[in-house]
Predict the structure.
Amino acid sequence: MKPFQCGWLLLLCILHFPAWAQLAEDSRFDPEMSSLINEEERLLEDLKKVQEKIEEYRAAKWKQLHPDAKPPHTLTPVSDSLARKVVQWGQKWNLKVAENLKDKNKVNLPATFNYSMPAGGEDTWAVDGGISVNRDLGSDFMYGAWADYHYNEAAANLKDTFQAGLSLDWIIGNESAEETHYFRSTFGFKRDNKIGGEGIGADLNYIPYFPEIWIGRELDLKLMKVMLAPIVGAQMATGNGAQGFADGERYSVRVGLGISASILPDMLGNRLTVDSQIVYWNNVSRSGAFDIYDREQWSWTTGLTYWLFTPDIKRARNTILDQRDQHFGITAKYTRGDNPDEGFIGSDLMTLGFAVRF
């Protein structure tokens, strides 16, 4: 599949699934909600059977009264509609859209799409986005699937990386109150068309929660509300080489800190947010194509986003916007440094684009 095809496929997935995420957010890890969803499905099946019987009776009656006429058109029962089936599926699965769903530390950064048309150069476009679904495995575990795509065709900031795989999360704490420690492990396919080529990747990350020192807990500073989210992890990746590089492997450890803030939340209705992540990588072992990476690497990403509207516009227009309703916006993002996971080296890039997050 060509790079632009991957990007458009991811964009279509993101733009067609907004209704699922809000419903999924409210039903995560709630056995009672899951039971109600199953009961709704059973009742809809019963309703479908009743509707079929009614349609059969109407058809027979019409044929009896009008033997030479064609039967009138009948509407598809509500229970058969694609939209309802999609919503029901979204309720069962915790659908999310952000910059990178494999990396729990980046779920606050929205997926971004931008297209530039400079007067003196070629048009360029870029995408940083991911999509994931997961379900409760029982107790404190979740399993799921994810995919993300990072592409930029600007000459000084080339990247073209696609990843997809499975995830397993171990949650310690009260998920419904978002008071949790997270352990996330992922495994999957990775294609980096600039350095590593095709291979596999796996990682394990820990995202702590210590509210007594404001880790994972919102800090209200009046003029802004701030959240800190550190991360510790380890990662491995293999590749068959791209652009003439040799096959190789990479084993790395990393530590990072995510900072999310809402600027003047009362005055601006919680619509202006800043999300920043700084990450330190130590590539303990490198071989083949991965020798191009330094032993130690840093990356820094900061995004300023103004959220435009929500699925419930009337409710949100003149009130403080809840984070769960921050779905579409305009974002300015600055990226600098190296990120071997997303496939770029020496990035120094400012972009303005469209933001999506669920």
Summary: Confidence is low (pLDDT under 50) at residues 1-29, 72-80. Residues 7 and 149 are 7 Å apart (CA to CA). The first strand starts at residue 96 and ends at 98. The first helix runs from residue 3 to 16.
